[in-house]
Amino acid sequence: DAIELAANAILIEEEFDTEVFVGFVKYSKIDDKRPVIMDMNLRKGLFSVLNEVKEIIINKKIPKVKINEKKCRNCEYYAICTKD
Predict the structure, then answer these.
(1) Confidence bin at 67 (pLDDT 50/70/90)
(2) What angle do CA 44, 10, 21 make, to 5 degrees?
(3) What does the alpha-carbon distance between residue 71 and residue 84 come to, in Å, rounded to a whole number?
(4) Cα 55 versus chain centre, distance
(5) Who has the most CB within 10 Å: 43, 51, 61, 77?
C-alpha cells in the first residue's frame, strides 16, 4: 500500500511541481485511515521494486509466486500465477 502511495506521490510531484510529504492509506474493510510519510527509504523501496519489475520484463522471466488463497482468490492474474 505504501509503495503504491509513493508512486502516486511522485506522479503528483511531477505533474504539479510540488512536494508530497505525507499521504494516507484508507482500509475500507476495517474503516481506518493511516498516514504514510514519504521519506527517502520509501522512495528507494519504490525504485527498487520498479527495477525488479524492469528486470523481469527485460529478461522475460516469470517470477516464482507464493500463492495466498485469501489474497489471490479475486486477483485478475490468478490464472497466470497458478498455471503449471
Answers:
(1) confident
(2) 85
(3) 20
(4) 16
(5) 43
Q: Among candidates 21, 16, 14, 19, which has minimal Cα distance to 38?
A: 21
Grid coordinates of 69: 488463497
Quick one: which H or E segment has residue 80? helix 78-81
Sign of the alpha-carbon torsion through 52, 54, 59, 63: positive
Beta strands (DSSP E) in the chain are 22-27, 32-37
pLDDT in tens, 11-38: 999 999 999 999 999 998 899 999 999 9
**Cell representation of residue 44:** 528507494
Whole-angstrom Cα distance, residue 78 to residue 55? 21
